[in-house]
Known about the structure:
Elements: E1 4-16, E2 19-25, E3 36-43, E4 46-53, E5 63-68, H1 76-80, E6 87-91, E7 106-114, H2 118-125, H3 129-133, E8 134-143, H4 152-162, E9 166-172, E10 181-182, H5 185-190, H6 193-198, E11 207-212, H7 215-227, E12 241-244
Parallel strand pairs: 7-8, 7-11, 8-9, 9-10, 11-12
Antiparallel strand pairs: 1-2, 1-6, 2-5, 3-4, 3-6
Amino acid sequence: MSDWVKGQVVGKQQWAEGLYSLQFDAPIHAFKAGQYIKVALDIAGERVGRPYSLVNAPQERPLEIFFNEVNGGSLTAPLSALNIGDPVWLTAAAGGIFTLETVAPAETLWLLATGTGLGVYLSILRSAEPWERFQRVILVHGVRQVADLAYQDLLAEISERHGERFRMIAAVSRETGAHLLNGRITDLLTNGELETIAGATIDPATSHVMLCGNSAMIKDAKIILEARGLVRHRRQAPGHYTTEQYH
């Protein structure tokens, strides 16, 4: 992951305060849906880079990342200030094993995300793998406010393409409304509300669960899932849930 290639910003979207997507044109190698690259800028004579999951499917260009500004962060503020045409550094090869490559087929694939953890699932959902390995895919996106629910048009396209095989559920923790699912993902798992709305149950016999986003959510979700008999998936020891934690 240390070989850098120069890219150029070709698209930018601000979804909400501090919440952005950037698109790049750069000659990176082929990658698998679910992998990440490092994105870097030269700041005060130092190349500052961080890992970001790719939002675009492997066969699609431009490259795209989804991120939020971090208070005091050395990279996210300069990234969000970039404009179309500005240069950026990207690693030539993607990395990471948050993919479906070694996951066994099952009845239902659950994709649980908080915040910008949604991005990696957009790449996975636009690849063939989830639809070849699972009968149904349920995406759960946990955010603080309704304004943070990005990529709604793309999610509507995915839903239209796959019909009843795909379900998108948004969980909003800091706003209430008649048509909102209120609460944190882990609380909605614990009280059963999430599965009731989804019309499916998370259990080892029928499910594989992917977790991406806030480290506290992942930690708590692992406890909940393991109490139900789900085992963490490893490439050499297949299991029932997979985690990504760098976001």
